[in-house]
Amino acid sequence: AFYSGFGPILFKQVPYTMAKFVVYEKVSEQVWKNFVNKETASDGMKTTVNLGAGLIAGFAAAIVSQPADTMLSKINKTKGLPGESTTSRLVKIG
Questions:
Q1: For 27-42, how does the pLDDT look when each residue is reduced to its tens digit (9 = 90+)?
Q2: 33, 50, 65, 74: which one has the fewest Cβ atoms less than 10 Å from its Cβ?
Q3: Taking each helix axis from N to C terminus, what angle separates 86-93 and 6-34, rounded to the nearest 10 degrees?
Q4: pTM above 0.85, yes or no
Q5: Residue 9 burial class via C-beta count within 10 angstroms: exposed 0-12, middle 13-18, buried 19 and up
Q6: What are the distances in angstroms from CA 25 to CA 6, 16, 21, 33, 89?
Q7: How many angstroms separate the CA atoms of 29 and 50, rounded?
């Protein structure tokens, strides 16, 4: 059988990735629009803006994906019955 945690990993990873991309873009867009002129910014300032936006995006993505990460950990810790689906295991845990 294919890795039993594949479905739960998708339920964790997809929201994490989406949140990270969206928050990164929105934060960097707002910084460039309201605080720093992108055309005149030094390379160091551009790096600082990118790192800051990435830090905020990573933090937000971790918060968004934490509930699914907890469920993934529980799924991987519990033994399923032979032939039992991941969905039924999630229902039992939840």
A1: 999 999 999 999 999 9
A2: 33
A3: 70
A4: no
A5: middle
A6: 28, 14, 6, 12, 36
A7: 10
Structure tokens at 29: 């867009």
- C-alpha span between 69 and 15 (Å, rounded): 11
* Length of the chain measured in residues: 94
Are residues 60 and 15 in contact, defined by beta-carbon separation less than 8 angstroms?
no
> What contacts 20, CB < 8 A, 6 or more positions away?
57, 58, 60, 61
